[in-house]
Amino acid sequence: MRPPTRASVISAGRRSRWVVIAVWLALAMLAVPLQARLGERAADESETFLVRGSESATAKQIIDERFRRGSETAAVIAYFRESGITADDGRRADADALALCRSGAIPNLTMIATPYQRACGETDPLDMSPGASLLTSPDDTVILSTVLMTDDSTPDIEQAVAAIRDIVPSAAGDESGLRAFVTGRAGFEADRKAALEGINGTLLAVTIAVLLLLLLLTYRSPLVALVPLAVVVLAYLVTAGLAYGLVAVGLTEVSGQTTAILIVLMFGAGTDYCLLIVARFRDELRRARDVEEAMVAAAQRTAPAIFSAGAIVVGAMLVLALADFNAMREMGPILALGVAIMVCAGLTLLPAVLTTLGRRAFWPAVPRLEPESAPAVTFWGRVAGLVHARPGVIAAAVTALLAAGALAGIGGRPALDFSESFREAPDSVRGQQVIRDHFIPGRAAPLRIVVAQEVGGKVQSALTQGPHTPVADMHAVARSVGADGDSPGAEAQGQRRSATDLLIFDADLRMDPFSEQATDAVPVLREVAERAADGHTVLIGGTVAENYDARQALERDTRLIVPVGLALILVVLAVLLRAVVMPLYVIATVILSFGFALGVGSLIFTHILGQPASDPNLPMYAFIFLVALGVDYNVFLLSRISERRRQHETRRAVTEALERTGGVITSAGLVLAATFATLMVLPMEALFQIGFVVTLGLLADTFLVRALLVPALAVMLGERNWWPSRQTATPG
Q: HSE (CB half, 13 Å, CA atoms) of 125?
């Protein structure tokens, strides 16, 4: 007996099942407070979208460690009057700045500067604070106030931006018509966090409601609908507690995006694992009088498939740990942990609860003992008959349809810029647009250039005076800590700081800093700066450079993660099926459905939803979820085929497996698609796109790949499916 089956059998015991239930309840209760703490840690996304080892991440680290000034996070207040800023508007900006200084509501405030005065903050020894010319638009319709704070943690930024918005005029305007927008890096971060505020609660509510409806429609029993959800909830709480432990000891990090996808993945995959056991348990109750006997039989037939399917998803998620992009890398271990815990709960807690409830779990549609009789002709019986009769035609038609959809995505789409990241533009986006229209566009998010002081002038000249340079303005904002002292660590090394003196320059681009054009300019600017620095330190960071480094990292991660993930899945399938041929074409069909989802999704986004730009993370996320979960659910069909092959030749085994599992596997696919569709209720365009494409791919996989294409190919290949295994069926 395999270990997963043994665990399920123990969970069905008369006494041991109560121990299992008590242990899970105790673990969940202990994890409840830790789940809240995990949410608090996920709120800080200051490092989430950086790339480890990248130039922009190194620049940020140096700025944070070596500069008193320059390491601050900036909130930019854009005061706008279409008819032109008045003297009263200037006095209002100064008054707002003083009020903010005195309020004490901004954590770690270092300076507030307006075009007319510095309201608070220490005097910079190099007098590098923004001057009036940098804070007033050429057409005199906009003035800027800059609020600098040293802490870039997301909760503190949220608090600061909220305090600013309580004092300055609203974006709609005050009684005089003066409008104010809070933007800059702090404004962007606060608005992104606000868009995700309550995301986990929303997802939980929507997901549970959708799943409860689907389960009620499937089983027409309130208890059997609630039990899988209760099992998943307990597993999720335990996962959240353990995940917080991993984060607390520094083994990984977590973001709001990760916790959102964790909910969707655990509720979708977890409910499906439960569905397979519930369906098989119901079937066994029709054959066996004893409830424990029925559960043991159900476990023996489903636990190996669930364990293998879970192993595929866990492996695929762990492969994400190889990524350089922080948001991708940190997601892998936590999602893998969630699926592993869910498999454990499905194979232990669910059998314990179902055995305790017995036949009552299915009330009012209680399964009764039924004599063996010829099964009635069902919908899936007719589908299986069609597949058996015309496998070549079905395989060709489905392949052609999926390939045509995949070809629609050739050429790709441009990347989403910041203003397109929200379903509805928040204050920071509108403020950035005001700055773009009335200032140098790059003023809202300047490049941050760290350069050795002795070549600072050369680098500045090279970047601003070229014939086609995208840099419109560049000015020094800070120099490294301790002008008359040693650099950090210099005393220990017995050397004085000389050539290690560093400057920070802010460089404003001529184009929208969140556009793809600005991102494309980064490698050229780095090359020019390196030539001018002539071997001295020069690093280009800031939001624009971080976007470029993230794009490059995603391309590198894709080239690594895709082949490693596919190889891992192939190995698991080959071990499960003891064959090579079937795993190869199963993976190929799932990749085809992935291409179909991306291609058709691209057409719908561009021509129907009016969103031609794409989130750069979309292909990678879609690949991981569609391939891992697509293969995952094919395992349930393939394991039943392998089971039936012990009595019949392969062609008959395929059609019998499809007839007997078509309903439950299709229900499982619909449940999973429905849970990913809940991401579409969120206000972030990236999560909407991920939810849409993964849902589309799962539906294609459920109704085309698993129901038609894989069975048709299996029928066509017959015994060759199992090469190199020489096992033959025992005729039945």
A: 10
Confidence (pTM): 0.81
10 Å Cβ neighbour count for 53?
A: 10
Q: Specify whether the backbone of 503 is left (phi greater than 0), alpha (psi in -120 to 50) or beta.
A: beta
Is 164 exposed, middle or buried, given 0-12, 13-18 or 19+ CB atoms closer than 10 A? buried
Query: Fold match between 12-43+220-369 and 443-481+500-547?
Result: no
Per DSSP, helices labelled H in 408-500 are: 427-438, 456-464, 490-493
Q: Report the percent of the chain where pLDDT is more than 70.
A: 89
Distance, CA of 307 to CA of 420 (rounded, Å): 41
Count of C-beta atoms within a 10 Å radius of residue 425? 16
The CATH classification of domain 57-195, taken from the options 2.60.120, 3.30.70, 3.30.1490, 1.10.390: 3.30.70
**How many residues are there in the chain?**
732
Helix then strand then coil, in percent of the chain rounded to 5, is: 65, 10, 25
How large is the average pLDDT for residues 611-627?
Answer: 84
Q: 12-43+220-369 architecture in CATH?
A: Up-down Bundle (1.20)
- Contact status, residue 408 vs residue 696, Cβ threshold 8 Å: no
For residue 497, give the 3-state DSSP assignment. Answer: coil
- How confident is the prediction for the chain on average, in pLDDT? 84
Give the separation between CA 351 and CA 230, rounded to whole angstroms.
13
How, if at all, do strands 118-121 and 179-183 pair? Answer: unpaired
| Residue 64 tokens, joined | 């944070």
Q: Classify 2 as helix, strand or coil.
A: coil
Please say whether the beta carbons of 56 and 546 come within 8 A. Answer: yes
Class of the CATH-defined domain 443-481+500-547: alpha beta
Strand arrangement, sheet containing 73-80: 118-121, 109-113, 142-149, 73-80, 179-183
